[in-house]
Amino acid sequence: MSVPIKVLFVCVANSARSQLAEALLRHTDPRFAAFSAGSQPSSVDPRTVAALENIEVDASGLRSKSIDEFSDEKFDYVITLCDKSARECQAMPGAGEVIAWDFPDPVTSADPAAFRHTLHDIHERIKLFVLVKTKHLEDL
User: Fold this and answer.
1) pTM score > 0.90 for this model?
2) What is the phi-psi region of residue 89: left when phi exceeds 0, alpha when psi lies from -120 to 50, beta otherwise?
3) Is 89 considered catalytic here?
4) Active-site option among 8, 52, 82, 122
């Protein structure tokens, strides 16, 4: 097997969006090594784990991490999931390509279905990302 494509998902608290993205990418395609971090990490929101388990995506091992934990690592892609993290991650030295996505934070939403909607939206974006970024691998 070839070297995995390393992806770091970043948001502010590393409690929901980036955790969802990390678990979803791992679930979607084994050619990717997915990680997540936050500029101001807190803890994984229990609703994040519940949303993942609801669609039978493994949430084990998820923990809130600081972006500082990855300061010496190289990533093929660093994907920010909110405008604030996009501004803060522009100077990350280990980033091959920085991609900015912006999803509303389900933690601060009053909508009871916010986690389900965010999970769905991130999953759709990840499926497209995998399709685009692996198309050349299929031709080899």
Assistant:
1) yes
2) alpha
3) no
4) 82
